[in-house]
Amino acid sequence: MTKTIRVAVPGPFPEPLDYLVPLRMPLPPRGSRVRVPLGRRELVGVVTAAPTTSNLPSDRLRTIITVLDDEPLLDEEMTSLIEWAAHYYHHPPGDAYLAALPVRLRQGQPAEPAIESAWAITAEGREINPHALERRAPRQAALLEALQAEGSLSTARLAGFDGDARGALQRLVERGLASLTQAPDYGLILGRGEESNLTLNEEQVEAARAIQPGPGHEVVLIDGVTGSGKTEVYLDAIARALTQGLQTLIIVPEIGLTPQLVRRFQQRLSGRIAVLHSGLGDGERLNAWLAARAGEADVIIGTRSAAFVPLPRPGLIVIDEEHDASLKQQEGFRYSARDLAVLRAHRLDIPVVLGSATPSLESLENVRRGRYTCCRLRQRAGEARPPVIQLLDMRGQPTQDGLSRPLVEQIQRHLQANGQVLLFLNRRGFAPTLICHECGWLAECDRCDARYTYHRGRRRLQCHHCDRDRPVPHHCPSCGSVDLRPLGLGTERIETALQAAFPDTPPARIDRDSTRRRGSFERQMEAARRGETRLLLGTQMLAKGHHLPAVTLVAIIDADQGLFGADFRAPERLAQLVVQVAGRAGRAERAGEVAIQTHHPEHPLLQMLVHGGYPAFAEAALAEREAAGLPPARAMALLRAEATSREAPQAFLKSALAEAPHDPRVERLGPYPAPMERRAGRYRAQVMLQSDLRAPLQNLLTQWLPALGSLPEARRVRWSIDVDPAETL
DNA sequence: AGCACGCCGACT
DNA sequence: GTCGGCGTGCTC
Fold this sequence. Notes:
With 729 residues, this protein is of the alpha/beta class. It is built from 20 helices and 34 strands.
């Protein structure tokens, strides 16, 4: 009798599909991969169950092609985590399963690490004096000497020897002096476990004490101002996990996973470290993942997708910069790495640490409700004093390409005092658009409800919302005038203005355009760290986690764009940005200054930040969300739709809403057009669902969504659901 | 999602 | 007469 198994295959299937396993094959257990036929394709899927019966008659079931893993690739903890996430985020389980695996495993390649060949010294080889060989076989002698010193030589190491090293080694093998060995190469980094030269201060000791790796679940929020040494607290806790023989998973935002951070972990921790980031090749990713699964890696540092790394001996999970929006996947399987990590820690019964200088309102709300323990770190290292924030009122001020007089003078002062200045503007290019001075024509993208950004260096107009890129017109397409002028501010323009204002201090511009080349971002930051660059200017990239100890002045060129954003989280983002950027200043003995240029100095958000800092802002923002009935006070989900016609998304959402089960506890808003209705040639609209409690909203979605696919209007749109959206755009 | 089938328009 | 456009439907 043949057996039936349930297989999660990639595709829009709400449930795994059933297949037969022929008698000659071993029955693959839950969590192992199989290759299966689907239509006329062959796919890799993950076994989720071995049911006794199928919903379909067995003559309609097809037979699996091969069993790819005899042992489960994913243990029960992983399979149930993935299934929970697929259910919670209303994403097809097959896609969720495959998204959780490294590409190579998704493609059906064996779950085996790279094998490294190496030549090892034999007992006999140790006894021989290499010089005895020297005359007739100098190459063998050199290699034997190296083998005696190093124990073994990897293939890569052979490059350091002259001539035919392989041949000479072969000779040594024949003489029984060396042997060819094969060992898995997980590509792990070996920690050096060096002692710290600084001791934890009182606050840090208390925070570290709140984190007890190993059995016992607790969520610890480390609310620590920049420079307060959050990382030292992590390192202390990770070191204790290591001594207990337990693994630590550290999740950091994409931009925060720098070589600098990895070096620091390597220097201070004593275990074997696996790093998982986007720059890795498929093979390296697979190795790191397998190292974690095999328990070979003691510490795993990774970005969002590392939330799905298997941990056979888990002891601790750390989420750094827990407020960062990049921890939420923005398309496809829209999971939050932070929320999943907290869930995992709960299920594994281990502690999880959330760290941030500007915690998310979600986490602060959890602290308020007593779900999370909060440790505050207010003391900055080296007695550095908190920066002084001041608002520069731009109203009626003459400006030179966005720089007001007072700001120019302030920069001057800092440069003369041998300080370092960092200017921040969250818009790259020269100007956000080009305008005709004669008729007012604006360079607008024809595929988006947005303007072209003028890039003067490249002499192009570029749309930052789609891939459009075109030459700058010589004259106005509307009236023919040649008087086309840049309108608004971008980093290129500020760079020009700085060059003019400070001819003796060349500015370094750091944005996506200037750091396109591989490694150039790191190089520029390194130059800044050494103090070679005194004047830095850049976007978001500049704000995150890079230590620039000599910065004395930080300027935010334009705070106004963040004050009036369409997204309800825009103020939160601005506040976080201001605080993070401000944290770059005054880390050494000098107190830093922060200058914020704005046309709305009286704005309550800015006032709050200047006078009460982030805690005051967060408290006010939480109260506001409560009053407005927005997250984290209430649960939210977004049904989005997009199509090439303006009507189709609206029509789909309308009939979708008509199908929605009625529940007075779930509020519905819309359909309404997305804040930027047209993007990359597609019109977008959405429906917002909100509820005081998660459960009714979840239940409604569970009942509602399966029916949406069969709506006639659904075929004219691309639609998706976003649970706990990070952005409502 | 991917891939077939099928039914209408312009072309070697 | 065919090549190919993308609407429609299915995959255990």
